[in-house]
Fold this protein.
Amino acid sequence: DIVMTQSPDSLAVSLGERATINCKSSQSVLYSSDNKNYLAWYQHKPGQPPKLLIYWASTRESGVPDRFSGSGSGTDFTLAISSLQAEDVAVYSCQQYYSGPFTFGPGTRVDIK
Amino acid sequence: EVQLVESGGGLVQPGGSLRLSCAASGFTFSSYGMNWVRQAPGKGLEWVSYISSTSSRMQYADSVRGRFTISRDNAKNSLYLQMNGLRAEDTAIYYCARDLRIGYDYVGWFDPWGQGTLVTVSS
């Protein structure tokens, strides 16, 4: 099984400042035949279902604000929020869809400082 | 509006059974693979099961294989999860989620998700 880890467990960032979340997979999720990274990011607010932010590691889902961006390749990935807004307070999780079981990271909680 | 609504959760004793349902609307249900994902109290998300658009392919997490069965009825725009032999560790909110990796019978990324239905396994 591919194990997904995230760092930090939580972070507090001032409004308007940059937040960076890291996700690491225990093996590469880069598929050589199409050169795509099989990784997605989700935002999960209390009392709401998770919401898709990013897929293919860096493709922003339609309607997601452009302050959210994904980067990385192979085993190391980053979700960045360029200018944190109050509505961005949530838990953020990465997910690999390279191979089953399709594992999620444990989540990173983002709060306002 | 694309919408998924789960139902069927509740309190069940260890060893018991439940059948979860997910009603889909606002999109062509028969064109998409579907997933069940759960979140235990205080834990992260755990993928549970996948079914392709035509039911030709099903996949399960090791933790539920042999106990849970995923199915769908495209005529009714509905997804199901039959859960047998329930254990305390199956206690979680269960979400159904549309798979956006269209055209492939493989798991991709998920959106939208339903609001979830709570399953509690306890005596």
